[in-house]
Amino acid sequence: MTGYWDVHCHLLPGVDDGADSMEESMHMLQMEYTDGVRHIIATPHYRKGMFETPVGMLEAQYEAVCREARCRLPGLEIYLGYEFYANMDMTETLESGRRPAMGNARAVLAEFSGNVSEEFIRERTAALRAAGFTPVLAHVERYACLRENISLVRELVGMGAYIQVNAGSILGEHGRKCKKFCSRLRKEDLIHLIGSDAHGDQVRPPRIGACAAYLKKKCGSAYVEQIFCANPGEIFAGIAR
Ligand SMILES: [Fe+2]
After folding, report:
1. Which of 35, 36, 38, 127 has the most beta carbons within 10 angstroms of its beta carbon?
2. Is 189 part of a structural domain of the chain?
3. How far is the CA of 10 from the centre of ligand 1 (A)?
4. What CATH number does residue 95 fall under?
5. Is 240 a domain residue?
6. What percent of the chain has pLDDT over 90?
């Protein structure tokens, strides 16, 4: 085992509503490291009109974090990605390289509004696929249209999307309904990836270790290895670092 992955984490300091300082970033990374995480994708928000940090600044913050982490946390791999708030120009933005897709699979961590319509999530997933990208649907447990209609999750998977849920949701930190839906997704084998979606060391801290321990008890080590190691290693193979 080469360590767990955290595929969704707002660890870059000062670029969105994630970590506020380098000190906080380092503390988040230390928590992840203690949990057994050895691969982390930094996923700053990209949301038109709200979070549009220039790529150059993201890269500078990423390099600074990697420099700080290198000697303190040996063997920890950090990659630069993003979380893309879905919009109608997203394939153009990706194709232009303003937000390049991640890894050999050209993966895109796509986020939607909590009240996204069935039509929109289906249409945007299809558009990403048609343009040659691999949609990774971020924290699907947050979208009412999927909670109310799990067959749509199945349909999106059939279209080529991967499903990501948040560690805290699995642990019940976002309410019982949300936890129940996550259990249902798990039982129907509709979860491919789990991310922390951590935003800080205090508020929404990383919870990969607790989630992995919980799932190990419920489903066994093979499942945990699949979700936290094998799947992310495959889906994000070749991701830039
Ligand atoms: Fe996020």
Report:
1. 35
2. yes
3. 7
4. 3.20.20.140
5. no
6. 91
